[in-house]
Design the sequence.
């Protein structure tokens, strides 16, 4: 890459190294990843101010996704203006903005094969360490694993993205060596175990739906008689069936997700009803970003609800609708429609199509888990979500689409 000045070279390298360090910390350290992203975001902001062509190129290549994001933030700002607590809403909007940082950093800074490969290796290292820590917690008889971030739902949301992504790479990854395939398989098994140890039913179901959806995609692409695809899914069915009928705890936990008598499920239903009531009273712009807990406790908690002090709706879409009305809820849906459409349209491209399928399923896993949890408030998981969007955008560049085998082997 040619630089026009020493300042540009310095800023670019600071930004790039910040992104690489973030990838290594993405699943293991909320504070560390936040601080390094702040450095990267500051340096890349100065870079695009001095050289606007970076930003112009970024917008040109990702116009629809960026337009969806811009619409989402416009809706946040409008909703904040009419908020019952403007300061809280402005703070929430600012946080949402910062959580997007991995997307522009990845899309703007990754310019060659070596950078991309190192980025994925460092992300894999972070997933490996997080999964290893979950295994340690399991051996220490921790009831529900939370890994290093200390939050169960954060771990569940991370693994709801990682497991489907690794599944696609494991079964379809082209240009990977035998050792790399083995490593991806081991990492997939560790991530799946970490997901199990979270005991989060919503994330379990999200991954199960993603796997079933991927099975039909794979059958459509390769045919029902493809040995690798068919063998894996038959083995998975046998494993899950055996686990269900031999592990009473797993069976009980899984069945409780569909039980009307389960207290946790009941509380979610009460929250969803309350969220709908908030929307009916504030249909246009909601009560303001970040204000759900304030209005819920003061006016909208149902008499039969037993859990106090909740500040979210346990559902991404209902939470956005309650806090931002139809305006914010529609913008949130449209933003992810743009992202998923981008991945879906490019998934048939060769030889890089499986990258888009992997990113599509990772994002879908996050959104499906978000039907039973407000995981868009889980900062570590949200950053990782937009990191995957950035990876998908990089996978759509012209240089990435050429010579897949050279790109993934011996390129650094």
Sequence:
């Amino acid at each position: 890459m040619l630089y026009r000045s020493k300042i540009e070279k310095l800023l670019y390298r600071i930004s790039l190294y910040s992104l690489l360090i973030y990838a290594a910390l993405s699943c293991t350290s909320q504070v560390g990843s936040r601080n390094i992203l702040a450095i990267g975001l500051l340096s890349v902001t100065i870079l695009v101010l001095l050289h606007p062509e970076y930003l112009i190129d970024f917008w040109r290549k990702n116009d629809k996704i960026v337009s969806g994001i811009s619409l989402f933030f416009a809706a946040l700002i409008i909703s904040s203006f009419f908020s019952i607590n403007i300061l809280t809403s402005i703070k929430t909007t600012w946080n949402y903005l910062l959580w997007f940082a991995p997307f522009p950093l990845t899309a703007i800074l990754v310019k060659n094969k070596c950078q991309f490969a190192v980025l994925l290796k460092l992300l894999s290292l972070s997933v490996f360490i997080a999964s290893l820590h979950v295994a340690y917690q399991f051996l220490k008889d921790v009831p529900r694993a939370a890994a290093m971030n200390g939050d169960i739902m954060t771990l569940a949301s991370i693994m709801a993205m990682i497991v489907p992504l690794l599944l696609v790479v494991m079964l379809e990854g082209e240009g990977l060596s035998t050792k790399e395939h083995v490593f991806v398989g081991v990492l997939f098994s560790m991530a799946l175990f970490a997901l199990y140890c979270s005991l989060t039913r919503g994330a379990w179901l999200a991954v199960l739906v993603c796997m079933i959806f991927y099975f039909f995609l794979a059958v459509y692409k390769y045919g029902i008689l493809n040995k690798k695809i068919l063998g894996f899914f038959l083995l998975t069915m046998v494993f899950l069936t055996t686990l269900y009928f031999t592990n009473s705890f797993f069976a009980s936990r899984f069945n409780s997700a569909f039980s009307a008598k389960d207290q946790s499920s009941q509380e979610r239903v009460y929250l969803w009803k309350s969220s709908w009531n908030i929307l009916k009273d504030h249909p246009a712009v909601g009560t303001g970003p970040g204000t759900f807990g304030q209005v819920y406790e003061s006016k909208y908690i149902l008499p039969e609800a037993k859990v106090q002090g909740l500040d979210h709706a346990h559902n991404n879409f209902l939470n956005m609708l309650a806090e931002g009305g139809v305006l914010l809820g529609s913008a949130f849906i449209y933003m992810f429609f743009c992202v998923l459409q981008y991945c879906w349209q490019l998934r048939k491209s060769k030889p890089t199509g499986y990258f888009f399928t992997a990113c599509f399923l990772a994002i879908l896993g996050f959104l499906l888990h978000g039907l039973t949890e407000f995981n868009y408030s889980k900062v570590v998981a949200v950053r990782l979500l937009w990191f995957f969007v950035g990876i998908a955008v990089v996978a759509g560049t012209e240089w990435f689409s050429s010579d897949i085998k050279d790109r993934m082997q011996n390129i650094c």
About this structure: The chain is about 75% helix and 0% strand.
